[in-house]
């Protein structure tokens, strides 16, 4: 069997890959969209496109073991790797590694406002350097057969949301990028923290809608402040896809309605309890591998949001999941604190 931790060999490019359906995706979120959350998300939706946390090129090329940054369970497909970086050679090398590991897409982060990544020319600061983004995209596209996409903002700081965004998209599209997921907020790199940048800059959905109208040949997805399936349906009248972030994590039951509402296919979970039970074998396997129970179950704390017993469920896992030797019994006991209901629908 090939060791994924060292293999960078290109897979057979003659093998046809199914085209990704990006209608709905869960945004890459640091410390949240880990492999454990993504595996849990698959108990709720088969169709949603999932993204890793942002992984920097330096971590992939120099970090060990590589499994720590790139490991995933096969159930997570379709799965995209989000890269942070700006050096074309390093981006191309990491894209080759991602393809060899079996990721379905490589996405370049041009939206993170953290000052820690700005210093390495990573994230939203790259919106001021469309030529660097274009060079990175071109290098990755030349190196791999899987899709190379970009997630960006509508602008940064004092950039003009029309002229500068139009220029950025044009230059990167000319390098071969056909898919852009646009966070419909500016990022203020001077004066706002990363947390404030998620809420304070006003949302400007019409700007993203106009981008789609002006570039109909491109796939334009929208991200930012979307909190319901009804809002997703509304956005899909204007753009090609929607990406949901915090709401999908904090209220994961939202994902249970995605397959039927947006793809017209039945979802895997008939109830919250059914989703939790479906995740149980995965928890057992991860515990056998040496993972801590609370590192896994922290991603389920929002499953029973607003439900009778939900608070007791969260408290039991929070108070006991971190203890030495915490095992499946802790999870089972927490689940027993929530009255089981009839199969639920998701609006």
Automatic annotation (TrEMBL):
<feature type="site" description="Interacts with tRNA; defines subfamily-specific binding signature">
    <location>
        <position position="314"/>
    </location>
</feature>
<protein>
    <recommendedName>
        <fullName>tRNA-dihydrouridine(20/20a) synthase</fullName>
        <ecNumber>1.3.1.91</ecNumber>
    </recommendedName>
</protein>
<keyword id="KW-0819">tRNA processing</keyword>
<dbReference type="GO" id="GO:0102264">
    <property type="term" value="F:tRNA-dihydrouridine20 synthase activity"/>
</dbReference>
<feature type="active site" description="Proton donor">
    <location>
        <position position="112"/>
    </location>
</feature>
<comment type="similarity">
    <text>Belongs to the Dus family. DusA subfamily.</text>
</comment>
<dbReference type="GO" id="GO:0010181">
    <property type="term" value="F:FMN binding"/>
</dbReference>
<feature type="binding site">
    <location>
        <begin position="245"/>
        <end position="246"/>
    </location>
    <ligand>
        <name>FMN</name>
    </ligand>
</feature>
<keyword id="KW-0547">Nucleotide-binding</keyword>
<dbReference type="Pfam" id="PF01207">
    <property type="entry name" value="Dus"/>
</dbReference>
<keyword id="KW-0694">RNA-binding</keyword>
<feature type="binding site">
    <location>
        <position position="82"/>
    </location>
    <ligand>
        <name>FMN</name>
    </ligand>
</feature>
<keyword id="KW-0560">Oxidoreductase</keyword>
<dbReference type="GO" id="GO:0050660">
    <property type="term" value="F:flavin adenine dinucleotide binding"/>
</dbReference>
<feature type="site" description="Interacts with tRNA; defines subfamily-specific binding signature">
    <location>
        <position position="195"/>
    </location>
</feature>
<keyword id="KW-0285">Flavoprotein</keyword>
<dbReference type="GO" id="GO:0102266">
    <property type="term" value="F:tRNA-dihydrouridine20a synthase activity"/>
</dbReference>
<dbReference type="GO" id="GO:0000049">
    <property type="term" value="F:tRNA binding"/>
</dbReference>
<dbReference type="InterPro" id="IPR035587">
    <property type="entry name" value="DUS-like_FMN-bd"/>
</dbReference>
<feature type="binding site">
    <location>
        <begin position="28"/>
        <end position="30"/>
    </location>
    <ligand>
        <name>FMN</name>
    </ligand>
</feature>
<dbReference type="InterPro" id="IPR013785">
    <property type="entry name" value="Aldolase_TIM"/>
</dbReference>
<keyword id="KW-0820">tRNA-binding</keyword>
<feature type="binding site">
    <location>
        <begin position="223"/>
        <end position="225"/>
    </location>
    <ligand>
        <name>FMN</name>
    </ligand>
</feature>
<feature type="site" description="Interacts with tRNA">
    <location>
        <position position="198"/>
    </location>
</feature>
<dbReference type="InterPro" id="IPR004653">
    <property type="entry name" value="DusA"/>
</dbReference>
<feature type="binding site">
    <location>
        <position position="151"/>
    </location>
    <ligand>
        <name>FMN</name>
    </ligand>
</feature>
<keyword id="KW-0521">NADP</keyword>
<dbReference type="InterPro" id="IPR001269">
    <property type="entry name" value="DUS_fam"/>
</dbReference>
<feature type="domain" description="DUS-like FMN-binding">
    <location>
        <begin position="26"/>
        <end position="326"/>
    </location>
</feature>
<keyword id="KW-0288">FMN</keyword>
<comment type="similarity">
    <text>Belongs to the dus family.</text>
</comment>
<feature type="site" description="Interacts with tRNA; defines subfamily-specific binding signature">
    <location>
        <position position="311"/>
    </location>
</feature>
<dbReference type="InterPro" id="IPR018517">
    <property type="entry name" value="tRNA_hU_synthase_CS"/>
</dbReference>
<feature type="site" description="Interacts with tRNA">
    <location>
        <position position="109"/>
    </location>
</feature>
<comment type="function">
    <text>Catalyzes the synthesis of 5,6-dihydrouridine (D), a modified base found in the D-loop of most tRNAs, via the reduction of the C5-C6 double bond in target uridines. Specifically modifies U20 and U20a in tRNAs.</text>
</comment>
<feature type="binding site">
    <location>
        <position position="183"/>
    </location>
    <ligand>
        <name>FMN</name>
    </ligand>
</feature>
């Amino acid at each position: 069997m090939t060791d994924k931790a060292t293999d960078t060999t290109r897979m057979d490019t003659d093998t046809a890959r199914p085209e990704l359906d990006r209608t709905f995706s869960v945004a890459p979120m640091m410390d949240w969209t880990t492999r454990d959350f993504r595996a849990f998300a698959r108990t709720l939706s088969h169709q949603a496109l999932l993204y890793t946390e942002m992984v920097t090129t330096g971590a992939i090329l120099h970090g060990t073991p590589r499994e720590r940054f790139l490991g995933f369970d096969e159930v997570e497909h379709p799965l995209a790797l989000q890269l942070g970086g700006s050096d074309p050679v390093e981006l191309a090398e990491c894209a080759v590694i991602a393809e060899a590991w079996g990721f379905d897409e490589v996405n370049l982060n041009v939206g993170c406002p953290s000052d820690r990544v700005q210093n390495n020319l990573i994230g939203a600061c790259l919106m001021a350097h469309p030529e660097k983004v274009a060079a990175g995209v071109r290098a990755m596209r030349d190196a791999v057969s899987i899709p190379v996409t970009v997630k960006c903002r509508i602008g940064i700081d004092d950039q003009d949301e029309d002229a500068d965004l139009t220029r950025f998209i044009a230059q990167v599209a000319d390098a071969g990028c056909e898919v852009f997921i646009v966070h419909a907020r500016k990022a203020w790199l001077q004066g706002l923290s990363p947390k404030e940048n998620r809420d304070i800059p006003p949302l400007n959905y019409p700007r993203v809608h106009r981008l789609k109208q002006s570039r109909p040949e491109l796939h334009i997805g929208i991200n930012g402040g979307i909190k319901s399936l009804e809002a997703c349906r509304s956005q899909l009248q204007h753009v090609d896809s929607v990406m949901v972030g915090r709401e999908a994590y904090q209220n994961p039951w939202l994902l249970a309605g995605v397959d039927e509402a947006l793809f017209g296919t039945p979802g895997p979970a008939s109830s919250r309890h059914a989703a939790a039970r479906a995740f149980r074998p995965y928890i057992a396997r991860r515990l056998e591998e040496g993972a801590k129970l609370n590192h896994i179950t922290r991603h389920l704390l929002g499953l029973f949001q607003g439900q009778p017993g939900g608070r007791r469920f969260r408290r039991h896992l929070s108070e006991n999941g971190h203890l030495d030797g915490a095992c499946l019994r802790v999870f089972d006991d927490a689940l027993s604190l929530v009255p089981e209901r009839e199969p639920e629908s998701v609006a």
